[in-house]
Predict the 3D structure of the following.
Amino acid sequence: MIFTKAFVPGATVEEVLYNTDVYNGLYAYNYLGEHSYTVLDCIDTSMVYDALSKRLRAYPQHHISIKMSQLGFQTDLIQGILVQALDAHLTVFFDMESSQYTDIILNNSIELFQKYGNVGITLQSKLKRTRADMEKICELNMPVRLCKGAYKERKEISYYGNDDIRKHFFDNIKFSLSNNKGLTAIATHDKSLIGSVCNFVNFRTNYFHYEFQMLYGIRPDIYKWLISEKKERVRLYTPFGDNVWPYFWRRIRENPKNLLLAARSMIGV
C-alpha cells in the first residue's frame, strides 16, 4: 500500500480527505472499483459515496466521480447517491467505461442530468462515436469531461494512432468550449494539447466555462505549471480505497516513468 500512495492517497473517506487539501485544492474523488457482481458489494459502494457526500458538505467545490458498473447499474442506488450529493451541493461525474457500456452510461447520465442537474459525463476522444455524443451533450449544456480513453477497443470503433486521438481530442474540446454552457473538463497530461487549448481560449473573446483535470500524482510538474504559470483552474481526479493494484498498474502501463514517481514518493524525495 505504501508504494501506491503516490497515486492513491487513502483507503477510506477519512484518509483521503486527510491526505488532500480540501480547503484550497480542487478534487474529483473516486472510490476504486468497477463491475460489482453482488448486491452487497453495490450497497457497500453506495454507502461509501453517501459518507463522502456528508463529509464534503462543507466543501462543495469538489466533485464525486463514479463508475456505474461498480453500482451494478442499479438505478435506485445511483439516484440515492445523487440525492445525497445534491443535498451537499456537489457535482457527480460518471466515468466512461469500455465501449460495451457507452450507451447505457451515456443515456442514464443524460436522464439523471435532466432529473437532478448535478450530473456530468465523461467521453473518450479515441472512440469514433464521440463527436456525435459530444453534440448531444452540448445541446443540453451538460457538464462533460473529455479524456483520450484508456480502454483497449476494436479498430472498427476507435482511433489508434496517437495523432488521430490527439486531433479528435482537440476538435471535441473546441466544440464543447464553443457550444456548451456547462463545464468543459479537459482531462489530459499531454502538455502540447494543454498548450493548444490555452491558446484557443486566450485568442477568443467569449467566456469559457472550463477547467483542466489531471490524475492525482501524475505529472505534478504540469500541474504546478498550469497553476503557477498559466493561472489555470486544475482539478485532481483522486481515487481512494483498497482495490489499488489494478488502478496502479494501469498508470504504470500508460507511462513506465510513473513507477519512478511512485518510488520517489515512497522514499520521500
